[in-house]
């Protein structure tokens, strides 16, 4: 049984995860979903860098998806570095700070390459989709440019489509925005096919959930319950193998991952960034040397993750 199936059972999902079929008297068997990343597999020593917007940044708070990914590969030493930034686009708009978008884009690329990833997850499109059909060519050009800029990493790149907007009686009908998201998801799919990259179609797969929500706080941004509920859909979108592991046994791993994410976040996005590296560094820039002091804490957190994941197969 796949790990995603285990999560579906443990987390109370009311329907089979997408891509699964069953026949009377048989165990669940994985069916190959369309556009599935058949070649996706993680190797021992892989370093994943996850680029994206709010969906990615918030995941580090809860760690459900990263936990599922690590647990499905418990026999491998894999690290994940979350570079998500709320409200961001392929142009680096949200990362600009007091600079222009070009600087934000430059930071996105330089930090990604600095981390020497072997795998890169690219998860954009939900913010750009508000521009509708008129903004699509600009988005396509921006995504192509970003992928070209990441080529020096020589990493395996996986494109993610955005998730759909949740329907709620207390919010406007999301059909118009979901139509735009479908358009942008289609563009991401075309770019993936053109470049020979795998597409992780969250837009398609996340529409298959049937449990009662809400799973977002505004129709767009997942709550903790949303990340938890969608875990089997995320893992199945990545076609990840694994074994049945109880939620109780996975919880220490999830907490260790959250602790690691917090330490890494504090390193790459310190609260006093403007004083350390920005236009006020003449006041407190001398303290920038302390940023590297987060490294031992990150390393210790990774050791704890490794210790726990190795115990999952025992």
Automatic annotation (TrEMBL):
One Pfam short name: Lipase_GDSL_2
Any one GO molecular-function label of the UniProt entry: hydrolase activity, acting on ester bonds
The SGNH hydrolase-type esterase domain, residue ranges: 57-228
InterPro entries xref list: Iah1-like, SGNH_hydro, SGNH_hydro_sf
Protein's name in the database: SGNH hydrolase-type esterase domain-containing protein
Organism: Gemmata massiliana
